[in-house]
Amino acid sequence: MDINLIHKNNPYESFDYKRYPLDLQGWGSTDQNFQSLIEKIQPSLIIEVGTWKGGSAIFMAEYIKKLNLDCKIICIDTWLGAIEFYSDKNDSSRYVSLNFENGYPKVYYQFLANVMHKNLENIIIPFPQTSSLAARFLLLNHVQADMIYIDASHDEEDVYKDINNYWQLLRKNGVIFGDDYDEFWPGVKLGVNNFVSDNDLGLTFTNRQWIIEHKEVLSKRSLNDVHQKSRDNKKLALEYERDLFILRAKYSQLVEQSDQGKQNLEVLENCHREELSKVKMLEQLLSESQKELERSKSDNIQLKQECEQKNQNLEVLENCNREELSKVTMLEQRLSELLVQLERFKSDNIQLIRESEQREKNLEALENSHKEKVSEVAILDLRLNEFLNELERSNSKNIQLMQESEQRKKNLEVLENSHKEKVSKIVMLEQRLSKLFKELEKDKSDAKKFSFESGIYKEKYENLMFNYLSVVRSKKWLFANFLKKIISG
Ligand SMILES: C[S@@+](CC[C@H](N)C(=O)[O-])C[C@H]1O[C@@H](n2cnc3c(N)ncnc32)[C@H](O)[C@@H]1O
């Protein structure tokens, strides 16, 4: 099978698959039955109808690679999801995984990326198409497959149609098989059962997969098997009818719940409308901010350059900063020391405040005593004025006395001069007296001779002595008086 039957250009070419990290989320993608069938059939072509992110196709391709089989897998999918993918918009494995962009799913690119992550581009051929159209295309091109895996829509009619369409593409001795043959997917059960019974075919099961083999010739035993399977099918149909009955009951229950749900839905729709109007506003804001973004992109380039410049500056600043930091740590140490000092100062301060309060009290006492002293000083001032007045008076008296004293000094000088004269006279007199004494002595010696004369001379002498002594006494008295006056003046 050549990829160019479907694609002119290789779909993997120049696809940037790294934008989509590996994500193999799926359902029953690694069932053991895939490997058992590959081993048994040794296929050269597998068709998978319903691929999603490629979980089952990749599982089969890896095994094909391991067995070194020359085999391709055509993956047919619209990559638009099935009906159940749209029932819950919050279902992360279905609706959310469709990964819409502008309303169109991008899950196909996730599938492509997964194949490339696993390096299986040479085995897996994507065919993005509806199952029916793809079947027609392959039929027209005479494509025949050994294994056909049906895992697309799970509705009864779709399942039947898919099996019916692809049955025609199945080689003799090939198998057509599928997933989800269980009570959760009644459409699968019905579709498979109807196809098998309509075509008198055999149906086998594994854990969760159904298998229809395309046998070339039906032997007698096989015919018996077919009859037996037909009987089994009828039994199955009855069981299915029973299941259907139970499901209908469940369905009516669900309808009731759905009514309630509808009401909730209306409320939600109203909220949704409000949200939509908000979204529109936000979209407007978004477009504005996109424009803004464009503007800021160009600003950004400029800013980048500035930033680089700033980075350089920053380095310089960082160096400075380091230095500053070391200074800051020093300052912090200093600060902590200062804080300790401050604590000491604080305690000192408290003491000083106490002392200051004490001093204030003392000051008050001093002020009071000062006031008293001031009043005393005022009194003393008065008295001082009086003294000054007296002093002035006594000064003027003094001047007068000084004048008098000077006058007296002059008088004294006169007196002294006269005293000196008198003293010189006294000295002279004393000299004369001593002369007289000498003469007296001479006379005494002569007294004997002149006893007569002596009486006369004695009288003279006594008179002279008397005069002399009275003169001396009067001089002494004058002198003493003079001295007294000087001392008292
Ligand atoms: C259950 S998923 C397949 C899971 C897959 N086999 C795995 O192992 O993970 C069903 C897939 O079938 C696809 N599908 C549903 N209806 C389809 C249709 N009519 N034609 C083509 N693909 C369809 C959906 O797009 C979805 O990807």
Describe the secondary structure blueprint for this structure:
Layout: H1 32-41, E1 45-49, H2 55-67, E2 72-77, H3 95-98, E3 100-101, E4 104-105, H4 107-117, E5 124-128, H5 131-140, E6 145-150, H6 156-167, E7 170-178, H7 186-198, E8 204-205, E9 210-213, H8 220-447, H9 451-488
Helix pairs in contact: 1-2, 5-6, 6-7, 7-8, 8-9
End-to-end span in angstroms? 167 Å
What would CATH call the homologous superfamily of one domain? Vaccinia Virus protein VP39
Bound molecules: S-adenosylmethionine
CATH architecture term of one domain: 3-Layer(aba) Sandwich
Instruction: Report strand order across the widest sheet.
Output: 5-2-1-6-7-9-8
Element-by-element helix/strand order? HEHEHEEHEHEHEHEEHH
User: Which stretches are poorly predicted, pLDDT < 50 over at least 5 residues?
Assistant: none
Main β sheet profile: 7 strands, mixed
Structural class: alpha/beta
Strand content: 5-15%
In CATH's first tier, which class of one domain applies? Alpha Beta
| Computed CA radius of gyration, to the nearest angstrom | 75 Å
What value does the average pLDDT take?
84
**Count of individual beta strands:** 9
Tally of separate helices: 9
What is the helix content?
55-70%
